[in-house]
Amino acid sequence: MSELQGLQLRMDEFRKRGIAVAGVVVDPVDTNAQLQRDAGLEFPILSDPDFHLIDAYGLRHRDAHDGKDIALSTSVLLDGTGVVRWTYVTTNLRYRPTPDQVLAAIDALPR
Amino acid sequence: MPGALLSDARTHRTRALGLAVSSLVLVLLGTVGYFVAVIEIGSWLPDLRNRALPNWFLIAAGLLLSFVAVSRASRGRKLAAVVVLVLNVALTGFWATMLYVKFVVPSTPGPTIGARSSDFALADPTGRVVHLADFAGKSLLLVFYRGHW
To answer: How far apart (Å, rounded) are the C-alpha atoms in residues B65 and B20?
Structure first.
């Protein structure tokens, strides 16, 4: 969740580079609407309660929170043709990519 | 002269206990402080959250002080200083286990670099269904996160 706030802080730099940002989570639409308001997020959060995209990317974390499955914290960068160009899959609950790592990956995208 | 020696010894003892207490404060700041402060400010300082370096400095300083306290404590205060040292070591062990063992998640490669992403149809907070095709021609950063609770 904190990673979303971290991204929001650097939104200008994503905007400047013409990058769209979206969160993906198992939470229902209502929860996401609330979070988006509370955290003042300017990008959408997409609800994936049935693990369609989470499973397509192999990011299901089984039995992770109160016995429920959730998504592994992961960042995925797609180029304009939908090809995966960069990923950061966390190996530890605490670890997140820093905005600088994300921006460096974006700047390395083929133009 | 004997009086001066006595007061000197007393100061020494007080210092040893003061050191022990300070060492505990440092270790608590490093360990408990990580969970109450560093995780919270992680959005602003992700490096701090990922590496926990200042926490390790605090803890190392605390443990060092704790050893000094034990070595300086008079016989009567030795036990108290040793108890604090054991407590400091236990706190450090617990904290390190949480961070480097309990927080480890199953490793997975995630989506393959260079592969085309599968399409998706997921609802945004307004209920509108968003497709990958909506971002055609634009790079997209998808951030999967654990949830809001």
So the answer is: 7
- With 0.90 as the threshold, say if the pTM is over it: no
Contact residues, chain B, for A98 at CB < 8 Å: 46-47, 50
Which residues in chain B are closer than 8 Å to A27, comparing Cβ atoms?
147-148
Within 10 Å of residue B70's Cβ, how many Cβ atoms?
22
Which residues 11-40 of chain A have a CB within 8 Å of chain B? 14, 17-27, 29, 31-36
**Measuring CA to CA, which residue among B117, B124, B42 is closest to residue A22?**
B124
Over the Cα atoms of chain A, what is R_g?
14
CA distances from B40 to A27, A64, B44, B61 (A): 21, 21, 9, 23
Mean predicted confidence (pLDDT) in B115-142 = 94
Take residue B126 and report the two structure tokens written for it: 């307004």
ipTM of the assembly? 0.94
Q: What is the DSSP string of chain B?
A: -HHHHHHHHHHHHHHHHHHHHHHHHHHHHHHHHIIIIITGGGGT-HHHHHH-HHHHHHHHHHHHHHHHHHHHS-HHHHHHHHHHHHHHHHHHHHHHHIIIIITB------SPTTSBPPP-EEE-TTS-EEEGGGGTTS-EEEEE-----
Of A98, A45, A20, the closest CA to residue B148 belongs to: A45
CB distance B123 to A31 below 8 Å: no
pLDDT confidence of residue A50: 96
8 A C-beta contact, residue A40 and residue B93: no
